[in-house]
Every structure is written in C-alpha cells, then in structure tokens.
Amino acid sequence: xxxxxxxxxxxxxxxxxxxxxxxxxxxxxxxxxxxxxxxxxxxxxxxxxxxxxxxxxxxxxxxxxxxxxxxxxxxxxxxxxxxxxxxxxxxxxxxxxxxxxxxxxxxxxxxxxxxxxxxxxxxxxxxxxxxxxxxxxxxxxxxxxxxxxxxxxxxxxxxxxxxxxxxxxxxxxxxxxxxxxxxxxxxxxxxxxxxxx
Length: 197
Known about the structure:
This protein is α+β, with helices and mostly antiparallel strands and 197 residues long. It is built from three helices and nine strands; from the N terminus they run H-H-E-E-E-H-E-E-E-E-E-E. The radius of gyration is 29 Å and the shape is elongated. The model has no long low-confidence stretch (mean pLDDT 86).
C-alpha cells in the first residue's frame, strides 16, 4: 500500500479538528452534571441568615420572611397591643417563657428585643399549623375577653400578641422566637444573635 497520495498536513489538521470538536462535546455533555453539584441559591439560603427590611411596616401590620425553611413573622405592634400583654398575663400557661424556645435576650413580657416588633416562628406548637393573627378586640368569635393575638385554625390553640399560649390549650408551649439582631433601625437579621459589645 502506497502513501504517495496522502497529504500529511491535511491529516494532522483533520485529526486536530476532530479532537477539538470531541473535547468540546465532552465538556458540553459533562457541564450540566458538574453544575448540578453546585448548591442552589435556595439550598444556600436554608442555612444563611436573612435580612428583613421592616422600614415600611405600619402599626398592626405583619409580614412573613423565610429563614431555614421556616415562615418567620415580623409584627409591628401598636401601643395598645403592647399594653394588652400585661392584661392577659393571669390567663397564660407560661407568662415568663420559662419552658419555651427563645433566645435569652427575648425572655421578657413582649418576647422581643424592642417591644414594638415581634419576630416569631409562624408555627403552632401543637401540630405545626400556621395560626392566624386576630388583632381586633373584642372579638367574640374567639373569646368574649379577647384582647388580640393568634388563633390556630387547626385545633383552636390561642396565643397572645407575644406568642404566649393561653392556659388549657392543645398547644403545650409558647411559639418559638428565632435568633435575630438589628443591623439598623429598619433592618433585622434573622438567624444571628446580637453582637456582644
């Protein structure tokens, strides 16, 4: 067999071109697999602290933020709402939050760093349903002496405007307060404790 008609330069070019196209095809085939190994933004956010802008929150308004897959409420309480906290104290199962989950810096009547803002996990401590804010008072559909608070639609557990459970309810504990801190007057960081000074 004779190699007289074979162009060596053309053969090298075709071999190189085929190699380059093959390598590009391999990268294109492997790229989606490699990209799938990178954690998604949602997965990264599950453990990361969340910045909650409360600058436009009006009195009586509540908003939801998501931290670690949990719905976290931020409620801006009015002066009347804050005043109701001491009035319901005798009717509460754990008024001092001795048995409830919350940071030490929130072990007070309003269960918050600043009385005006409540930051709380939006989950009933009975079976995990989401209670509804029932801020109007009186509200005979809840209780003739209702001063505002949360009512769980699943089994009727009632909480005050600090998430403290009333006596003789299906829910055994006060609602959970997550760790949080103020980055400024209008920004809360959910998932981080305040920096010690």
